[in-house]
Specification:
The structure holds 2 protein chains of 2 kinds. Chain A is mainly β. Chain A is built from no helices and 11 strands. Classes of the chains: A mainly beta, B mainly beta.
């Protein structure tokens, strides 16, 4: 199957840095997306990786290693508003859909 | 653009009743996806359309669920009869097309929170 694995929950302190990992099967990989979902709201797009390396966008960065089937989302200078669920999603070749992980619930405390 | 529009935002109904959820996609987006989200199972793809044609409905849980897309501006997801285990948040999402890359980015509507008593 096309399992996407992420930790269920993480906690961090305001101002700190947190890394949320995502692993997936490498066969047929064709792009990886990160979404943020606040409680009671819809998922919103954060980042996209298809080549190896780091993509930086303000306080958020996303890294991809295609050979390892591994990605992480790095959040710097954490703020209380970053408390949310972070979803990793992969597109596999031959499919027009995205396969989503179950999400990592991040709680940022003062 | 107003983004993906869904209605109603909240629906409370009794077991056995028919429920119809509605979605208006972003103009020009060729793909439309219906998802269900629960704490236990996460985000599950139910069905998706390409240019108004249903492509894959293998995620539809049972025959009680049906979806239509009569035109490029409108889609419905119907549950008849509804059961308590159908209680979830239902999202509609669209993307411009799957030529690869960023065009695969899906844009989600606000969702419909369904409660079946």
């Amino acid at each position: 199957g096309q399992n996407i694995d992420q930790p269920t929950e993480m906690t961090a302190t305001e101002g700190a840095i947190v890394q949320i990992n995502c692993t997936y099967q490498t066969s047929g990989f064709n792009g990886l997306f990160w979404y943020q979902q606040h409680a009671g709201e819809a998922p919103t797009f954060l980042s996209y990786n298809v080549l190896d390396g780091l993509e930086e966008k303000g306080r958020f960065s996303s890294f991809l290693s295609r050979s390892k089937g591994y990605s992480y989302l790095l959040l710097k200078e954490l703020q209380m508003k970053d408390s949310a669920s972070y979803l990793c999603a992969v597109r596999f070749s031959g499919y027009s859909t995205l396969t989503f992980g179950k999400g990592t619930m991040l709680l940022v405390s003062p | 653009d107003a983004g993906v529009i869904q209605s109603p935002r909240h629906e409370v109904t009794e077991m056995g009743q028919e429920v119809t959820l509605r979605c208006k996609p972003i103009s020009g987006h060729d793909y439309l996806f219906w998802y269900r989200q629960t704490m236990m199972r996460g985000l599950e793809l139910l069905i998706y359309f390409n240019n108004n044609v249903p492509i894959d409905d293998s995620g539809m849980p049972e025959d009680r669920f049906s979806a239509k897309m009569p035109n490029a501006s409108f889609s419905t997801l119907k549950i008849q009869p509804s059961e308590p285990r159908d209680s979830a948040v239902y999202f509609c999402a669209t993307n411009p097309g799957t030529s690869g890359g960023m065009l695969d980015t899906q844009y989600f509507g606000p969702g419909t929170r369904l409660t079946v008593l």
